[in-house]
What we know:
The complex is a heterodimer of chains A (489) and B (319). By secondary structure, chain A is α+β, with helices and mostly antiparallel strands. Chain A is built from 14 helices and 23 strands. In chain A, 27% of the residues lie in helices and 25% in strands. Chain A has helices at 6-15, 62-73, 142-148, 155-171, 209-212, 224-235, 263-274, 294-305, 325-338, 354-364, 381-384, 388-392, 433-437, 463-470, and strands at residues 3-4, 23-26, 38-42, 56-59, 81-85, 91-100, 109-115, 130-134, 174-184, 190-192, 195-199, 240-245, 255-261, 280-282, 284-289, 312-316, 345-348, 372-375, 407-413, 416-421, 443-446, 449-452, 476-479. In chain A, helix 3 crosses helix 4 (155-171), helix 6 (224-235) runs antiparallel to helix 8 and helix 8 (294-305) packs across helix 9 (325-338). By secondary structure, chain B is α/β, with parallel strands linked by helices. In chain B, 34% of the residues lie in helices and 22% in strands. Chain B is globular. At the A-B interface, helix 7 of A face helix 5, helix 7 and helix 9 of B.
Amino acid sequence: MPALPEYKTRVLLENHGVPLAHASFYSVMPEILPKPVVFLKAQIPGATSRAGKGLVRRASTPEEISNGLKELLAVDNCHGVLAADAVDIRKEFYAACLLDFGDGNRLPGGVILFSTQGGSGIEERSGSLEKMYFSLLNPPSAEKIALQLPDVTERVELSGFLHGMINTFIGYKLIVLETNPIAVLPDGSLIAVDCRAEFEKQSVSKEDAHLFELPESTVDDSTPLEKAVEKINAADPAGTGFFRSSREQIPCGAIAVATNLCGGGGKMLWEMATGGRSDISTLNESDTSGGLSAFKSYRILRVIMSQPEARVLILTGSGMAFQSQYHLASAVWKALRESPEPLPCLLRFGGTDQDKAMELMAAVEKSLPVRIKSFIPEIFPNAMIDQLEELAADVRVKQEYVPAKGELAFELNSPPGRFIYHPENNPDGIEPSCIRECPTGFLLWKNGRIEANPLAKCTGCLVCETVSLLLGNGELTIDLDLDLPGEVG
Amino acid sequence: MAGILKHLCGIETPEVLVFGITGRQGISCSRLMGGFGTRIAAGCTPGKAGQEVDGVPVYNSASEAVQAHPEVNSAVFFVPAGAIAEAVFDAMDAGIKFLVITADGLATHDSIKIREKARETGAKCLGPNTVGMLDTDGYLFGLIGGKASWARQNYLPGKVGVISRSGGLSQLLAAFHCRKNLPGPRKDGSFGPLWGDNYPGLSAVMCVGGDPVPGITLLDAARAFELDPRTEVMAVYAETGTTQENDLAEAITLGEIKKPVVVFLGGKYTRAGVAQSHAGAMIRNPNETYQAKKQALERAGAKVVDRPDAVFAATAEFF
Lengths: 489, 319
C-alpha cells in the first residue's frame, strides 16, 4: 500500500479538526531557520522507527538545526524535513484506525487500536491493545466512543480526538491512520505528535488527488523491462498488462521460464504447478487479461521474451477466457516472428475461439524459428511442464527481423499502431482478404488503398495482419513500436 | 424447477435492472444475458432516461426504474469502480434484493460499506470483482461465457454446484463438468476420460469474486446449493486470504452443509503479505494460509485437491 509521510498525513487530520503539534515543513534548506527547541523529522513514506535510525533529531541550537536539516534533507527518498516544536508531554496515548475484514461472526468495518500506555514499543505490545470496532457506514459519535474507552481522566478529550481520527479515516478512505503518540499537554488538551497513513490508489478522489501526490521516489528499483511495460501501459491503458521481474537468483541447474500468465486463475495454476520445485525457476510474474488488445499482448510478449536468461516461454490462463484466444495466438505468432531471440513455447489456449487459436498455431508451427507445443485447456500446467526440459535443451535462436517497407496506410493512437500497405504484394490492386476479415468493419478498401473507417473502431485484434500473411499475400502488416532497451543482443 | 437464487434470496424468476446499460460493456453483457434467457426489465444510466437499448427502456435511477417496473428484483452493474457504491446504494434503497457487481478496483471502504448496507436492507451482493453467476435453469448475470451461444453450448443442466473465488476458474470448473469424456488423471494413475457421454453437468455456478471483502461468501453460496435439490456435489475453487474457507469448514463440521464438497485449494506456495493471484488472496493472519485452510476443510470432511485437473476426478467419485 502506498504510504503517506507525516507532513502529508497532518493535512488530512487537520482538515477534520484533529489537533496537531505545531510544525513547519522544509523541502529545501530554509533561509530563516526554525527556532529551537525543535525535533527534526525526515519525511520518508513508509518509514517506521525513525528515531532508532537517526531520522529524528532533537535540535536545541541554531547550529544543530542547520546541520540536522542539511543531513536529513540529503537522505535517500526524503521528501523534506518537518521541524516540530518541542512540547511538554504529561502523558501519552496511542491510537490507530485500520480496516477490519471481519469473519464468519463479525461484519467487516473499521477498528481502532488504542493504548493508554503511549506509543513507544507499540509493535511489541500489539497483542495487548484495546480494540474498538466501528461501522464505516454509520460511524460512532464522540459520545459513543467515550462509552467504549477505558477509564482515563482525559476521556472526553480523547473521544473527541478519536472521533476526528475516524472521520479522517473514513473521509479519505484510508487503509491505516496512526497517531503515535497522542500527547496530553499540561493544560489537559491533546495533540498528535506524530502520524502516518496508508491508502489505496483507487480510493483517492479527483478532488483530493493533490493531497496524496508524492514526489517521485529517488529509490527506483524497477527493472528496465518493468519500465518498458509501464510505457506500454501508458500508451495503451485498456486491459491489464502486468509484468514484474523476479528478484531471486536462478537456482543452479534450474530451467529458467519466462511466463505470460492470464488472469488470477492463470497465475494460480502456474504457482500450483511449479511453486515447490527448485528445478524450475520462474523469471517473471505477469498478467495479461481484462480485455487488452492483441497489440498490447504482442508488446508485452516481446518484453517477456527479451529476458536473457529465459529458456522457454509458457503461456496459460485459467483455460476458459472470454478474451479471444485467436487474437492472442495472433500476438504470439507475431512476437515469435519479430523477436530478435524468440523462445520455444508451451502454449495453452482455452476459451473463446480456442479452436481457431490452435488451428493458427498448427498452420504456422513449421515456419517458426523455434519449437512450440500447443495444449488444449483440458491439459493443465502441471502436465505441460513435463515438456519443459525437452524444449529448454534447444539452443536459443537469434534472428534479425527487418520489416517490409510498404506505404503507411494510416496510424492509430488508440490502440497505438501503424498500418502498412504493401502494394507490391497486391499487383492486381484488388481488395485484399484482410479487409473482409476485419471483425469491426474498421478497414476499408477505397481507390486501391487501405483506409480507416471513421465510423468503426479498431480493437487491435491483429486479425487483419494474420489473415493477410496466412491467407493473403502479405498486403497489410502492422508496425507496433516498442521501446525495449533491455532486449537481448 | 427454480434456480439457485430462490435458495439464496428467495427470487424465483429474476427480473433484472442493468446499471450502465448504455455503455459498451453494458450493451454487450445485456445481449449475452438476454441471449441466455435472462429477463432484462430495464436499464439505468443517470442522464439517459428515455433512451432504449435493444428495446429495453433506460431510467435515471433505480427508484425510477422500479416505479415503472415493480417486477424488478435484481440488478447487475457495469459501471466504473468509483461510481459503484452510489449506484448500489440507489438499488438497495429501491428495494432490489440481489445485486451483481462485476467491477474490480473498488475502494475497500466501499466494499465494506456495501456489505454493511446489504445487511441493513436484507439484500445479497455477488462481488465485487466477479464474472457473475449462471444458472442452467436459464439465467445468467455478468460476463460468464462471453457469448450467449457459447454459454448455452458449454453450461448444461446437471448435478454440480460450482462456487469460486476466481472468474476464469469459475468458468472452467463449470464448463468442464459439462464435457463428454473429459480427460484427466484417474484413480489408477492412468490419464483418460473421467466419465463417458454421461457428464455430471451443472446446476449453477457462482463466482464470489477475488476481492478481500466479498458480498456473498463461499459459505453463503454453499448454503444455497445445500438447499438446491438439483445439486448433488459442490465443486469449490478456494484460495488463501480471507476467512471464507474457514467459515465453510466450520459449517460442514456443524452439519449445516451436508452435501459433498470438493475444494480445489490454491495458494500452496503463497507467502504472507503477497497478493499472488487476486487481491483477496493476500494472507493477513495464520488462519488464512493454505495449510490452515486445508487442515480445517479436511478435518471437516471436505475433499481437498491441489491439482486443478484432480477436481473433476474427485467430483466424479460422487456419481
